[in-house]
TrEMBL record:
Family to which this protein belongs: Belongs to the TPP enzyme family.
Keyword Glycoprotein: no
Ranges of residues in domain Thiamine pyrophosphate enzyme central: 196-308
Name the UniProt record assigns to this protein: Thiamine pyrophosphate-binding protein
Record-annotated Thiamine pyrophosphate enzyme N-terminal TPP-binding domain positions: 9-123
InterPro entries for the chain: DHS-like_NAD/FAD-binding_dom, THDP-binding, Thiamin_PyroP_enz_cen_dom, Thiamin_PyroP_enz_TPP-bd_dom, TPP-bd_CS, TPP_enz, TPP_enzyme_TPP-bd
Domain Thiamine pyrophosphate enzyme TPP-binding: from-to ranges: 385-530
Entry keywords, A to Z: Thiamine pyrophosphate
PANTHER family the record matches: ACETOLACTATE SYNTHASE (PTHR18968:SF129), THIAMINE PYROPHOSPHATE ENZYMES (PTHR18968)
Length: 542
């Protein structure tokens, strides 16, 4: 029997089912327990990308998933491999990523006797994953199909599968492969009683306000949301991950909110004045404590989302279970243009946000964000790591489209920007991708520069090198405490980049930064631009 005629192994059925459910990219670090699976993935058309750490691999899969809109795959070996991935899997939980996790497991025949590297995978992940199953020969395709269905049901999240080497290599007793069902979404109509009631609330509101989140982005609700806002004159605020759902240069866009006290001082008073707040696909997991009960009167708040909120950050008087785009399209067919917000409060808020986040120095984090925003281009994608630079960038960034700024906004894990950028670039090779990081975050996962090199990805890494865990230092100072455990030594990142096969440079002026960004766009290898400034530049920044 030729190679092309070989009987399908269980691993082949697993891989073919994943492919049928649109999985195209896998990331991980191999071990002996998953070699058959990796072979099957490659044969099925799912590329396996070797990473340097399993948490980074999980976040790379998240980056790819954001670009493709499909579930993507993390592969780990037994025991320490899966344990290494816990932070990345936890990130997928709070970032609502439909991550499929497949881990090798010791064969059943020896599992009760053998202890080397053996831990209870399902128990380890129980607080994190939506479900955990072990793949069995007779039901492999059904188990994988079920895992994907659970992972992609809102709120999306990770699902774990254990696969033992013996089962993976076994000739499959059933060779049929499950395929996704045809999916239809029923649309709301102007005659729907819920739509009519919501339309009436809008007709009588004098100061309506809209806040939008990631679920609205996933439902491609941007055009319908913009139409509604323009018709009734309602300003729109978004979470960081929903930035760009309408272009942020639009007069009704008040940009993103989440972690900035400066922005809160401008935006939260608008909610106090609003007589109706519509929350479209909004998830407060991205917000700081200042957003607890951001609408004091629950009767003024209407939540519109597919799934019932599982938080107590606020209490909505009305929850409408609906697909965001559908309800918006129905609303747009039933409302008429009208004048609201008789005062100029939204316009004043927009002007005040521009003022408080304006750039006041020729060099430093503000100026770097400004020029990067100009240089990225309409097709560019930026990822940003946790830290002071993320809060400033998220507030200053002007997103022209959704999903052009990726970050860990719910879990806020460090060392997310580079893996997100790698995953995004793997999924969209022709798209310019920029990873914005602090020196602490890059040092935490610096081995992934080797992944960038080995995959041949011409990424641009913009490093905010302030030699400090600046955000924590600021929190210490605000508490009246002396700095402790936040100072970083000065790594020569330019030399490090060359050592990993890329290009590196240190810059300390905006002209040098501008020139290096332009040069990076022409380079076939990755570029690392280390922007050096003092952490004091963040004082009062957000």
């Amino acid at each position: 029997m030729s190679q092309s005629q070989k009987a399908d192994r269980v691993a082949d059925i697993v891989a073919k089912t994943l492919y049928a459910y649109r999985v195209r990219h896998s990331f991980g670090v191999p071990g002996g327990e998953v070699v058959t699976l990796i072979d099957a993935l490659q044969a099925a058309g799912i590329a396996f990308n070797l990473t340097r750490h399993e948490t980074s691999a999980a976040i790379m899969a998240a980056g790819a998933s954001t670009i493709t809109g499909n579930p993507e795959l993390l592969v780990t070996t037994v025991g320490p491999g899966l344990a290494n991935a816990v932070n990345g899997i936890a990130d997928a939980v709070q970032e609502r990523v439909p991550l499929i996790v497949i881990s090798g497991i010791v064969d059943r025949a020896t599992r009760a006797r053998y202890t080397h590297q053996v831990i209870d995978h399902a128990q380890l992940l129980r607080p994190l994953v939506k479900a955990s199953f072990e793949v069995e020969p007779e039901s492999a395709t059904s188990t994988v199909a079920r895992a994907v269905a659970i992972a992609t049901t809102e709120p999306m999240g990770p699902v774990h599968l254990d696969l033992s080497p013996a089962v993976a290599a076994m000739i499959a007793p059933n060779v049929s492969v499950a395929t996704p069902p045809k999916r239809f979404t029923a649309s709301a109509s102007v005659t729907d009683p819920t739509v009519r009631a919501l339309s009436e609330r809008l007709r009588t509101a004098d100061r309506p306000l809209i806040i939008a989140g990631m679920e609205a982005v996933r439902s491609c609700a941007g055009p319908a949301l913009q139409h509604l806002a323009e018709t009734i004159g309602a300003p729109i605020i978004t979470t960081y991950k929903a930035k760009g759902i309408i272009p942020e240069d639009h007069p009704l866009s008040l940009g993103g909110a989440g972690l900035s006290p400066l922005a809160d001082r401008v935006l939260l008073p608008l909610f106090e004045k609003a007589d109706l707040v519509l929350a479209f696909g909004y998830d407060p997991i991205e917000m700081r404590l200042g957003w607890l009960d951001f609408v004091a009167d629950p009767t003024r708040l209407i939540d519109i989302s597919k799934t019932r909120p599982d938080h107590a950050m606020h209490h909505a008087g009305t929850w409408i279970s609906a697909e965001t785009r559908s309800i918006l399209q129905a609303l747009n067919g039933s409302i008429v243009e009208r004048k609201i917000w008789a005062g100029s409060e939204p316009a004043e808020a927009k002007a005040e946000l521009d003022r408080v986040f304006s750039t006041k120095a020729a060099w430093g984090p503000h100026a770097i964000v400004d020029h990067l925003n100009e240089a990225v281009g309409s097709d560019g994608l930026v990822t940003v790591d946790s830290g002071a630079h993320r809060i400033l960038l998220s507030q200053k960034w002007r997103a022209a489209a959704p999903l052009c700024l990726l970050q860990s906004a719910g879990f806020c894990t460090m060392n997310a920007a580079l893996p997100l950028a790698i995953g995004a670039k793997v999924a969209a090779p022709s798209r310019p991708v920029f990873a914005v990081m602090g020196d602490g975050g890059l040092e935490m996962g610096i081995g992934e520069l080797a992944t960038v090199r080995d995959l041949g990805l011409p990424l641009t890494i913009v490093l905010f090198q302030d030699r400090s865990l600046a955000l924590i230092a600021m929190k210490q100072a605000s508490a009246g405490l002396a700095p402790a455990g936040v100072a970083l030594g000065e790594t020569d990142f330019a030399t490090v980049a060359f050592g990993f096969g890329g290009y590196g440079v240190n810059v300390e002026t905006i002209d040098d930064f501008r020139n290096e960004l332009e040069a990076a766009g022409r380079r076939k290898s990755f570029s690392l631009i280390a922007c050096r400034f003092d952490a004091s530049a963040y004082s009062g920044a957000f």
